[in-house]
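Late entry, magnesium ion complex.
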Amino acid sequence: MEKKHILLGLTDSEYDLIKEKLGREPNDLELAMYSVMWSEHCSYKSSRIHLGRLPSASPRVLVGPGENAGVIDVGDNIAVAIRIESHNHPSAIEPYQGAATGAGGIIRDIFTMGARPIALMDPLFTGPPEQPHNAYLLDGIVKGISGYGNSVGVPTVGGNLVFDTCYNQNPLVNVFCLGILPKDRLVLGRASGVGNLVVLLGSSTGRDGIGGVSILASAAFESDQAGDTTSQSSSKRPSVQVGDPYEEKRLIEASLALLDAHLVVAIQDLGGAGLACATSELAARGRVAMDVYLSEIPLRESDMTPPEIMTSESQERMLAIVKPDDFADVQEICKKFEVQASVIGHIVPESSDCPNQLRILTEAGGTVLADIPAATLADEAPKYNREITPPKPLAKLDDMLSASRDPAEIATDGSHHASVPDIAEDILRLLVDPAFVYEQYDHQLFTNTVCGPGEADAAVLKLSAPDIAFTGKALALSSDANPNYCAIDPRLGTAMTVAESALNVACTGAEPIGLVNCLNFGNPEHGEVMWQLSESIDGMAQACRELDIPVVGGNVSLYNSSEGKDILPTPVVAVVGLIESISQKPPIIGLNAEETLILLGQTEHNLCGSAVSRLHEQSSPRAHACNLPRLDLKFHKQLIGFITKLVGAQIGSSNGIPQEIANSTDNLLSYIHDVSFGGIAIALCEMAIKSQCGAIVTGISSVEELFSESPSRVIVCTKFPEKILELSQQYGIPSKVIGSAGGKAVTADNLFTLDLANMSDQFSGYLSTYLKVTDRE
Amino acid sequence: MAEATLYLMTTQTTEEMNKMEYKVQVIIKPLDVIANPEGKAIERALSALSFTQANKVRVGKVVNFSISADTAEAAQKITEEICQKLLVNPVMEYSEILISQEAG
Amino acid sequence: MAEATLYLMTTQTTEEMNKMEYKVQVIIKPLDVIANPEGKAIERALSALSFTQANKVRVGKVVNFSISADTAEAAQKITEEICQKLLVNPVMEYSEILISQEAG
Amino acid sequence: MNPLIKIITFPGTNCEYDAYKQLRFLGAEAELVWHQQSTLGNCSGIILPGGFAHGDYLRPGAIARFSPIMEEVIKFAEAGGPVVGICNGFQVLTECGLLPGALSKNEEMRFICKTVPCVVKSTASVLTSAATGGQELHLPINHGEGNYVCDDATLQYLTTNNMIVLSYTTNVNGSIENIAGITNKIGNVVGLMPHPERAVDPLTGQTDGQVLLKSFIEATK
Ligand SMILES: Nc1ncnc2c1ncn2[C@@H]1O[C@H](COP(=O)(O)OP(=O)(O)O)[C@@H](O)[C@H]1O
Ligand SMILES: [Mg+2]
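Prediction complete; structure with ligand written out below:
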């Protein structure tokens, strides 16, 4: 039989390290706790040494990476808390519950900080929905986010939807949450005060997701779909965690009430690795010793073993540190919200030889079952500097999928667009309306939503919450990813992703103030994956530094693979922007007949990594064979500043606005859209479809110009073209007229003509066609 | 879709002449180890209504349909396939199948 | 709430000594006259999967629980009350009750 | 005493603050009432807001109707006081028998959140008195179980007594007769699936909900 620690996902050398930390052999309970805490998911052992390169400081940052969520000061004594997390592997096994518990987990991270969760975004990546199993996964994932998010009362205001065969067996489900708080409600997960109580709030503990983090989020993960449906077959898989949004809703209300009443010293959510994680992190961060009594933990099943109790990932639980004198008041509040509160331990005096001992006892005064320095669990997992192997120049990143033609050739000659109907055909194939997804999400709760999903380049929310009055400010949120670009050049691709996200919030008049990221990659034991990860972090660091956006948090999900192949590198970023003052809705995506279309920024005629190139490769452009368009971060920053001011002036901000704009009484901008996926072609068609108004495109001369996804570009639709051209010149932004709006078709000289009805049908019909009927096959 | 099905039934009438209609009931229950929040909520409501005698509440689904097949065994086989392909997710649920001959 | 239940069970131990545990299964089905979107959705999926033999799909709920009572009749009576008060909405649904003695 | 609207909050309710905020924006006084309370106190009108009372488990509204406050709500309604149930509140009103019929799962089996055109079918209710018959209102809907069902006799009863107050212009969720909202016979109890409180603030979009809330506020005076 294999050694216990191997079965638990620990290597021989990790086992030796545990022995060294303890000065003895660990017992079964201790080994179980180490195995979950030292898992990739909890310890970031492969990525930690790289993450330090991300810039995380700014005068606004109150809490940076390392806590449950990042916290940013937005003035008026208000702060926002943001975080993003993945729930990829659980969603591959059970899409509904995987996604639902993903939402539940990230929401807990936010209210743990004292913030009321007011927005979710859900970047989703699956295989193409034409394949029934992918449709089944996507349908379940969306229903899971919908079922949980709507019911728990947090609106989902944005997200992404990316299809690629590399996610066939391994969908990516990232969930972002934003909360807002009065600054003085901020709490950190640091236990303190000898004699204080350790109080478990929320659900009973069951056998959910036992060993989930080590098994699901590690090399041992393998999706096996087979199963006996007609009996209660036992399975080696950890049991699926089931989300209960109703429990979480009550937990949110109870936790915020406890914080408002100053009844907790510290609080921490229970996520991956359950109690093992929450107890050790609270103790380690606070440098205190803690005793935990298993007898006091309410169990769903009476026959659970100590390792099962300590590593269970039962959902909707929180751990609070409470002064003994306050416990009666805590119970009072918990009773109101029907939340279970149990004292399961104490902060105890430190022993002289070990500063923050975490002891697990059968009961108070009972047998000691585990006795571990908390920091060795929480902070002292090995950090690996795994081997990094850059791919050979021009080598295929993915040998399984070979392009039917040399992508370099496609990238430069565009010859596959020999005939004009081809272009129209390609555009139709690139038009996908995610409305089918976001219309299943409550995106209006709290009546904050100024721009909902699908309306503008970023979601815009009034900065207010049930307990925080609107002061005239607003937030803009955008999540982005560009796996195609990252496959070709993870460093530049990631920088471009950051750039796009920042420009998206700028298009609503917001100044980018913070970013969180979720790094979804393949197997870190593959040198090339580590290279992708390291490059991606460098690209993010560089872009964030140059654009002055602090990275306040993140999450790493490794071992993502499908059919034995690592996924494309998929770093996801979410940027939050601040609108200092809003009195009018920002310009959104659309067109107004008889107005002028102006492109701000310059197009590089380069189709490398573009969506349209992908259409003409058998698989996808994972070849390392072409050069992505350039990204000039200095210029990009200038563009962001210009757009923020231009839009900001129109919607009521008075921050550094040029005189000419402030004086204008009529709106300078009627509509705005950034140029990204599908280039100018798709940007214009989306604008046309949204307001059912056509356009005559004049300034575009080639296929490359039409479909290029070079960064730093925005299209505006305006009544005042001269003014825009003049202002952009003044601010050093290249601009040109590319046509005018009107009619019932989008037409570009010699390139394509598409009528609105045709485009609209294709746009809205794609997802519903494949998601109407979904089976598990 | 419903129309399509009807149409098929009409055209297939001759070859389906010998088939019987079976009534199928599939009960789908959550596996014991899986949390069942709905059951928990109902249990809470029952206790608030002073039905304290009731506990261990678990909620599942029941799917009833008709199947046309040559024999009960064939109907059973098709139903098992339907469960496996569509109705039951084995990582969370198990099912019980009951087949009876259609009355009338 | 869970604590409250526990507490009640403890104090009632003596008078509950003679009670039996009964297993209850309540099947809640949609009334025939009421449309059943869930059933229709499954029917669509079945026909897409070429299970054209199956039709008239109706989906309901199954609620399982334990009841402690003196006799099966008493258990049946309590269950009927529970159905009437909470589990079944007669505008859309009807129920079937099955009571059996707890194994072990 | 000044008119005071009570907004009933169950565990799992989540639109109570939105209703509160918008009623106050429109000049009314409002207060949240926790479901465990057994008296309403000074009360000139009641809103049962949207959300997921008791998690919507079993059936939306099925468990909420047993909360202590509901006895008071029923008494208030039976005495002719104005009561409006929005979305989940509508579900509670049908479950507790103040309104006929029931709300089942949306025909497409998906949750729907979007703004849809509705038509005022009757102005003889506390929610529609300030609107005009046939008026088109763009109102946000946000529900998974808003598919109104009832038997033929009930439908007959609803139509002959002019009790359908609001309907969708296209059938978004499968409801009989496109029903979006109904009232009781005397017009003081109204349930509707659309969220008028989400269509008040011009900054967040439509303002078509104002006329409905204003009718209700007027009825509480
Ligand atoms: N999974 C999702 N959940 C919620 N909203 C989504 C989702 N996917 C896309 N959206 C929304 O749909 C709109 C268009 O998405 P997309 O085409 O990805 O935007 P972008 O312009 O950034 O490429 C955006 O407003 C986005 O927030
Ligand atoms: Mg964008």
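The pocket of magnesium ion (ligand 2) is lined by residues A 457, 500, 504, 674, 676 (CB under 6 Å). Will revisit in the morning.
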